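> example.struct
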């Protein structure tokens, strides 16, 4: 019963549409109808601006941190990973937005912060370096999604943690399949995050 409750709680927290709400409140737009069409912080950056993107990012990260903390209190590390993974699923496929959500990177990052802050810090530094060097947020997200499950596989021997991390990494890569095609064809948009 605890596992089922954590799944439900995680999903419901994940369905809170932070980027959509920020887009509506600060830009009076539906971010799904502008830019890349993605309901995530990167698209908020493109369509509404840096300040709005920061708010959206914080909200999306908290959607991963909070379920991880709740899960940890109920069932330890297994509960933290399970609850937070379903928060990421809720973010990617929210019932509140007709199952059309974001790509799960910030919420997955929140989950990692809530379960292993040192790994989260390492991945943040890695992603910052990739984005600063290439200006491709998608490339940083995709490669970090591959590195993360490898790291958790090495650090933890729990089947739930290991299988969950592989599932989560695969989900994020899957959600970036259009970005992968654009990267390969040289048509991927570069971020303006570091522009003056």
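> example.seq
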């Amino acid at each position: 019963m605890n596992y089922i409750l954590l799944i439900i709680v995680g999903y419901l927290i994940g369905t809170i549409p932070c980027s959509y709400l920020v887009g509506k409140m600060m830009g009076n737009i539906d971010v799904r109808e502008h830019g890349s069409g993605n309901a995530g912080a990167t698209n908020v950056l493109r369509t509404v601006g840096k300040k709005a993107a920061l708010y959206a990012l914080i909200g999306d990260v908290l959607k991963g941190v909070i379920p991880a903390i709740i899960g940890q209190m109920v069932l330890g590390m297994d509960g933290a990973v399970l609850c937070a993974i379903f928060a990421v699923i809720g973010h990617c496929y929210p019932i509140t937005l007709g199952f059309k959500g974001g790509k799960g990177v910030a919420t997955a990052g929140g989950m990692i912060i809530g379960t292993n802050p040192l790994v989260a810090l390492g991945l943040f530094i890695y992603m910052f370096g990739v984005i600063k060097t290439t200006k491709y947020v998608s490339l940083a997200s995709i490669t970090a999604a591959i590195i993360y499950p490898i790291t958790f596989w090495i650090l933890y021997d729990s089947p739930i943690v290991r299988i969950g991390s592989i599932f989560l990494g695969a989900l994020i890569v899957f959600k970036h399949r259009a970005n992968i095609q654009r990267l390969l064809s040289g048509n991927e948009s570069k971020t303006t995050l570091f522009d003056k």
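> remarks
The chain has one domain: 2-185.
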